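Section 3.1: Structural characterization of target chains.
Under the original work plan, the team committed to producing a structural model for every single-chain target entering the pipeline before any wet-lab resources were allocated. The record below documents one such target. The sequence was received from the expression subgroup and is listed exactly as submitted; it comprises 78 residues.
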Amino acid sequence: MKAFRVHGEYSPRGKRWFKFSKDVIAESEKDALERVYSVMGSKHGIKRRLIKIKAIKEIGMEESEDPVVKYYLSGRNE
């Protein structure tokens, strides 16, 4: 598994756009994109059409700010 940082914008009501950055664990960029759509939809109730992805970048354990991502990348979860 690899870690990815996804940057984008979302609009909860379709009017104002808010920027976000999310670290996720996935096999590929495509899987990371699907994971972000899933998380944003479940936590914030946002439809996919109201999420604009600006960039997806592979990152290392040192770069991640998410403790869950760091835990999985450290290998202690096995």
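Residues 2-74 form a domain with the Ubiquitin-like (UB roll) fold (CATH 3.10.20.10).
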